[in-house]
Amino acid sequence: MSMSRRKASESSPEYPLLGFLYFQPLHGYDLHKRLESTLGEVWTLPQNQVYNILKRLECQGYITPISGESESHTPNKQVFTLTPAGKHHFETWLMTPTPGSSKALRMEFICRLFFATQISEDLYSRLIQEQYHEIHRSVEYLKKKMEACPAEQVFNRMGLDLRIRQLIATLEWLETFHQICEEQLT
User: Fold this and answer.
1) Model-level pTM?
2) CA angle, corner 120, sides to 10 and 27, nearest 5?
């Protein structure tokens, strides 16, 4: 998707929560524990915020409470499951490349890859390739902005140069990460 057509990054912790629910119904406490243990260095989220997000997702029709026990076997607690709308919302996010921003790549893209590896190797490989192209497009876009930026706008040029260098480093990281994951996943 072109940078000009894409709205701002959707770096929201709702997506990892929806992702965990994509595979099985869970209670808020279990969602928080799963988030901490698998993506805790990517997303830092207090437990009370998990419950607030779950309320919002329920109001939006993306999740619904069901009866049953949670993974921790806590009785009388709400266990949530994805609705068809929630599944569609998560899958749409999963298939959308992350824009070329270091923060968005660290949070969104790593999270997407985490869930993609659990769905299919083909999906995982496709996301890596699409992301590589998206970052490359972002670098080219920023280089054009740099060329058009007047020399006397030193701080604008410094900002653009830093963003370009970060994205080039991200492309190198992505190639290395892809090789490591390929070795571990096969």
Assistant:
1) 0.80
2) 60
